[in-house]
């Protein structure tokens, strides 16, 4: 026989899982496509809101990259200019959202963006999920290798059994995986990280778009590009296409009209690319220190966002932690079960997944901005850990004190408020400090959805300066300064608490 309380908890867990699966069914448009056919009002809706939201991964110069604009960062590139023209022809303004390349498809399918232009190649698999426009530009695939290996590596055939880097979700990644024999393929989200891995000897070559390879080779000493020699048997195309939601025929038709005009006038190659190159920074003759100092505004802005996210999240996390700690200690089986499910589920799933679920999943039902989504997800995550910290602090207080306060006429809530919690907080103060420090470091994961905190700004500096290690060193120092200051502050107040107790 199953214990009745355990049975109730299992039923509650099953109910929660059913609710989540129902929500995911709402989020995934393809899941309900057959049951709920929709009319194509995409273009009408875009015109109604007055903006066309374009998603891109700005680490792909000269197509899309982050550059300076009066001390702040801005996304530039030939693809951005194309997006502006497509939006102009629709009679709306273009809004650009930056995120990691492998998040773009999810963002499009969950309605966070209306269009993808990111040097995207059409493949049979992708065509099942989204609708592509006609090609607006055709480029080849090259290999970027170290100059010292120019006599060893002549094409992809020479990479058999070696480590090769590729951008996750890209056609180049798939080509390397399918055509290089016994390859040790290392997938990364950022092209900047791939180039850094190449220069530090972590990989022997990186396949990438020929124009992008040229941009990185021109701004990095010690590397070169060679023809990759891949065959097109995989069905992948070297054509660059814009992508829209599946069934958005009206948007595709409108974009195709613009693309047809652009191709007829050779605007992409003759105007957009040269105009984009003008915004690309050349730091070859500038020292690393001067180069990093010129981007101080980027790092200051990232620090501001990091501290803001952390402070707000820790406040909400403490409130949630107290509530769920008391619920878990409650003798009410329902409150106890809800607290257990929340704490164990949140602690059992990665924070990055939680951030993506809040932004892409719940955001498909309620439009939540990236910054708000990051704060909500980090607060919920912190709340689960704080709940366990507070619970351990409460249980560390001798039960005799609670019994004594009750015998003196205090209620249970007064006992908890005036007797137990103050002592528990003193006991758990070091653990709360560690949680706050961990939360500051974990805030870097919000960069995956385009929140402009320190990690995001570091990527922006990498993309604009083509320097891989220096920006990383800068944010390491900034993170250390922030966490060390917090650590000393927490230690100071811990000493004050101990001093007050001794007196």
TrEMBL record:
The chain crosses the membrane at residues 305-326, 468-487. It holds the Pfam family SBP_bac_3. This is ABC transporter permease. CDD domains: TM_PBP2. The keyword Cell membrane applies. One of its GO terms (biological process) is amino acid transport. GO terms for molecular function: transmembrane transporter activity. It comes from Philodulcilactobacillus myokoensis. Keywords: Amino-acid transport, Cell membrane, Membrane, Signal, Transmembrane, Transmembrane helix, Transport. Residues 1-33 form the signal peptide. It is a multi-pass membrane protein. PROSITE patterns: ABC_TM1. Belongs to the binding-protein-dependent transport system permease family. HisMQ subfamily. GO terms for cellular component: ATP-binding cassette (ABC) transporter complex. It comes from the Bacteria. Residues 303-487 form the ABC transmembrane type-1 domain. It is found in: Cell membrane. InterPro entries: AA_ABC_transptr_permease_3TM, ArtM/GltK/GlnP/TcyL/YhdX-like, MetI-like, MetI-like_sf, Solute-binding_3/MltF_N.
């Amino acid at each position: 026989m199953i214990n009745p309380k355990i049975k109730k908890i299992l039923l509650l867990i099953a109910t929660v899982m059913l609710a989540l699966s129902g929500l995911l069914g709402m989020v995934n448009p393809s899941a309900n496509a057959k049951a709920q056919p929709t009319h194509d009002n995409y273009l009408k809706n875009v015109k109604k809101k007055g903006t066309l939201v374009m998603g891109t991964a700005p680490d792909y110069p000269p197509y899309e990259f982050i550059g300076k604009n009066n001390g702040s960062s801005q996304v530039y590139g030939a693809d951005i200019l194309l997006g502006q023209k497509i939006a102009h022809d629709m009679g709306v303004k273009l809004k650009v959202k930056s995120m990691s390349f492998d998040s773009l498809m999810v963002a499009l399918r969950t309605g966070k963006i209306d269009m993808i232009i990111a040097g995207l190649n059409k493949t049979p698999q992708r065509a099942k999920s989204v609708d592509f426009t006609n090609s607006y530009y055709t480029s080849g695939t090259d290999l970027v290798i170290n100059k010292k290996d120019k006599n060893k590596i002549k094409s992809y055939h020479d990479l058999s059994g070696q480590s090769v880097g590729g951008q996750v979700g890209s056609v180049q990644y798939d080509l390397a995986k399918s055509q290089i024999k016994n390859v040790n393929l290392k997938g990364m989200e950022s092209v900047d990280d791939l180039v850094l891995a190449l220069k530090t000897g972590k990989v022997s070559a990186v396949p990438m778009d020929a124009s992008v390879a040229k941009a990185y080779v021109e701004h990095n000493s010690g590397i070169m590009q060679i023809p990759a020699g891949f065959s097109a048997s995989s069905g992948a195309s070297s054509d660059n296409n814009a992508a829209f939601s599946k069934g958005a025929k009206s948007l595709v038709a409108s974009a195709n009209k613009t693309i047809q005009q652009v191709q007829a006038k050779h605007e992409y190659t003759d105007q957009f690319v040269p105009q984009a190159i003008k915004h690309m920074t050349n730091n070859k003759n500038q020292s690393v220190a001067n180069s990093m100092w010129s981007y101080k505004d980027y790092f200051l802005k990232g620090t501001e966002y990091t501290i803001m996210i952390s402070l707000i999240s820790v406040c909400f996390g403490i409130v949630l932690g107290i509530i769920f700690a008391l619920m878990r200690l409650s003798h009410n089986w329902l409150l106890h079960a809800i607290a257990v499910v929340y704490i164990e589920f949140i602690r059992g799933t990665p924070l990055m997944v939680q951030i993506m679920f809040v932004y892409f999943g719940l955001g498909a039902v309620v439009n939540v901005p990236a910054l708000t989504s990051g704060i909500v997800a980090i607060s919920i995550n912190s709340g689960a850990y704080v709940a366990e910290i507070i619970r351990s602090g409460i249980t560390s207080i001798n039960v005799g004190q609670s019994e004594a306060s009750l015998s003196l006429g205090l209620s249970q809530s007064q006992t908890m408020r005036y007797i137990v919690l103050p002592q528990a907080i003193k006991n758990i103060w070091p653990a709360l400090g560690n949680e706050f420090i961990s939360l500051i470091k974990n805030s870097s994961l919000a960069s995956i959805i385009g929140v402009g905190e320190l990690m995001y700004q570091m990527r922006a500096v990498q993309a604009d300066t083509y320097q891989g290690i220096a920006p990383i060193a800068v944010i390491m120092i900034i993170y250390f300064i922030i966490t060390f200051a917090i650590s000393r502050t927490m230690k100071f107040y811990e000493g004050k608490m101990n001093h007050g107790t001794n007196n």
